[in-house]
Design brief:
Order of helices and strands: HEEHHHHH
Radius of gyration: 15 Å
Number of domains: 1
Number of helices: 6
Shape: flat
Low-confidence stretches: none
Largest sheet: 2 strands, antiparallel
Helix content: over 70%
Strand content: under 5%
Mean pLDDT: 79
Length: 105
């Protein structure tokens, strides 16, 4: 059991290395790319923190191609990220959000 300041990091390590994703661990699913795995973890944590209604609204935004393209555009414009990388980060964030099972509407 991990105590103190390292407990949150150990929980995240468990998700990265041991929690099975669709195709192995989360880190394997991200092809061992730490920024992509970080985006997926951020989505996972956001999915836990968000109320069900907010989570559904966010997933609906991400499912809308026009709104998703605008998010990517803003990521490239304001964060200086290349479009392909921004798209991959957003994909992984969405994957993390979807790790939380929400009841059907």
């Amino acid at each position: 059991m991990v105590h103190g300041d390292f407990a949150p990091a150990a929980d995240k390590a468990h998700l990265l290395y041991y929690q099975p994703a669709q195709h192995g661990t989360l880190l394997e699913a991200c092809e061992f790319d730490l920024p992509l795995a970080g985006a997926a973890l951020l989505g996972h944590d956001a999915g836990i923190l968000l109320e069900e209604q907010s989570l559904r609204a966010l997933l609906a935004i991400l499912a809308d191609p026009r709104k998703r393209d605008r998010l990517v555009l803003h990521m490239t414009r304001f964060a200086g990220t290349e479009s392909e990388i921004a798209t991959r980060l957003l994909d992984q964030f969405e994957l993390g959000l979807q790790m939380k099972k929400i009841p059907a509407a």
